[in-house]
Design brief:
Shape: globular
Number of strands: 0
Number of domains: 1
């Protein structure tokens, strides 16, 4: 039962990551919500780096779906645990950039916490 819930939540995380990555192409100003102050969304070089990040986000989301379709719950749990490093790193980047603590903890920290719970549920299930 809990493994099923964790699997659905992992799928939602994957879909969310794909959506956020794709959104960078049609709404680059959404990058401001990441939490880094003075994000230069109109700068051409910044948009190029944002596109690089977007492709990586979309690939990360696809990895989750690959594991949902072809892997075991245990393997998905290990992947989600390893991927938890990403939002933790994002939170640290926001804090180091003197960004809003609400973004660091409320967006990135909360994402890391949810991913950690999903990981544990998949690994013990």
């Amino acid at each position: 039962m809990l493994t099923d819930v964790a699997t659905v939540l992992a799928g939602l995380i994957g879909a969310g990551i794909i959506f956020m990555g794709a959104r960078a192409f049609w709404a680059p100003q959404a990058a401001v919500g990441f939490g880094i102050p003075d994000t230069p969304t109109e700068d051409r070089s910044f948009r190029a780096w944002l596109a690089v990040k977007a492709v990586r986000d979309m690939a990360s989301g696809l990895f989750i779906f690959v594991l949902l379709v072809g892997g075991s719950s245990h393997l998905l749990g290990w992947f989600m645990l390893a991927a938890t490093v990403i939002p933790v790193g994002d939170a640290l980047i926001v804090l180091r950039s003197n960004g809003p603590k609400a973004a660091a903890y409320g967006i990135h920290g909360a994402t890391a916490a949810v991913m950690l719970v999903i990981s544990v549920l998949l690994l013990i299930g």
